[in-house]
Amino acid sequence: MAVATQSAPAPAARARRRWLPSSIGGFAVWVMVGFFFVNLIGVISTVVIDSFGTTWFASWLPDGYTIHWYGDAWADFDLFNVMLVTAQVAFAVVALSILIGVPAAYALARRDFPGKRLVSLLFLLPILIPPITYGIPLATLLYKLQLAGNIQGVILANLVPTVPFVVLVMIPFIEQIDSKIEAAARMCGAGTFTIFVRVLGPLLLPGILAAGILVLVRTVGMFELTFLTSGPGSTTLIVVLYDAVFGAGIRAPQEVDAMAAIYTSSMLVLLVIALRFVNPTQLVTRVAD
Amino acid sequence: MSAAAAGSSTGTGALTLSRRPSLRHRLADRGIDRMLILLVPGVAFLVALFVYPFIYGLQLSLTPASGGPLASYQEFFNDPYLRDTIGITMWLALPAALLNVLASVPIAYRMRGRFRGKRTLTTLLVVPITLGTVLTAEGLIKYLDRSGWVNKFLLDFHLINQPLLLVHNYWGVFFSLVITGFPFAFLLVLSYMSGIDPSLEKAASIMGASWLQRFRYIILPLLAPGLAITFCLAFVLAFSVFPSANLVGNPTGDTHVISIAAFHAAFEQFNYSLGSAIAMVMAAVMLGIIVLVLMWRSRLYKGASGGKG
Q1: Of the candidates A209, A216, A208, A206, the residue with the CA atom closest to the CA atom of residue A270
Q2: Homologous superfamily of B72-298 in CATH?
């Protein structure tokens, strides 16, 4: 392992060479990472291959290939309506969490006030605490208020982690904007609303876009809260997938896999779009910063 | 900043001739002005849908349909089937979180510098997190099945004689926790590791410290606070395992985890009091572990040498 450190070539040369394993330790690390990815690819490709297979029991690959499972799944699970609901929920959550989150982020980024730590904690906790923990009391409350079991309930529940998420993503974006610009706009007679729409809005657009895409990915992938608060006609794709696997028996497993493949591909499309605007680590959490 | 604050409070206060500035100015000096109205919708929303449900749940758990205020908690702790969920969940979450965090350290140490393909690698690692536990579980069911690729590979290479039982038991859930939890822990550890100033290590290297010494006396102490946070998050994530415990586990047996018990009580038996009580126990256990880890962390070195956190 010391081999890697003995020779210290020029930084540029080292940067070029770094990606090749240079010692036993490095080799072991790459084997671990490789093992992880082999299994990950195995898991995902099993789903995708099975969704195209006619029958697949004990062989390495299915006996034949077909695409009719996709049509069957589309019809049996009423996927058109499911996708519609998913899109409605996702876009409502994105729009509302930005409307609520961006102003709050602005106030938190620009002002130092007594109790700021408490407010920051309030915006941090829903991201740190896993959804199932607060989801059960939340869903109980929403059912009692007769807000759950429909699309409004799903949207409300999904907003709980996404509003704080928008706040945390936006704070650094806002902090980097020089507050003199706003002061100058005020000197020229702009009101708070005008400043927001005509000065800050355009400057914050990249940040808002990034936050919106991250919220979109998180909402489409959010299982727990949607599962707890949705009723017939308000389930999103991931919950329908869960129900199909958990309550399986009658339907062909390939059909379920076809739906899983649809889910995977739509998530990957969203992910590819998201990664054009944001850093991969931002998808995980902002807590590290 | 205070200039902007004064600018936003218009007129009246500035004209008062009393010796003390107006209340509005004094508040503005402390950072309280009309801009804080922007905070109101966000705070009100979270109080209504995050803080209040917790209080409501706590109150609900203390008002069972029959018996004294603690009857729901008694029911949970007296019934071994329910009580054991704590142990079962711990036994899943602690090893999974430890493995995820500990495996991340050497890998992140190797990859802390810049290298070609780093962004591709982090991008690939985000994929399992984005896909979520439900899809992972769905894939694992066939992948780890008796006739799945893993067993087929091991049998064909004569590494085993009998197919291994890897799904619908403890191991299925464990693997799903590693597949979604490892990238999460790794990306956090990597960002902490990248926050450590490389010149510290270089200095030690010049002074003749070996690879092991540099890791033990420089990287590890600076990384430890970040590791504590990462472990907390990884543990909490694993402790709240729900969909995969149902899908690739044995939800009535050895993966009858606490979230399943809470869900079952609240939304299948409609015993909201018991369901809330179990959710409160779940939160309390997580909090307990986090407090323990953070107490341990507070004993560690906290300095300004770049280890973020």
Answers
A1: A216
A2: MetI-like (1.10.3720.10)
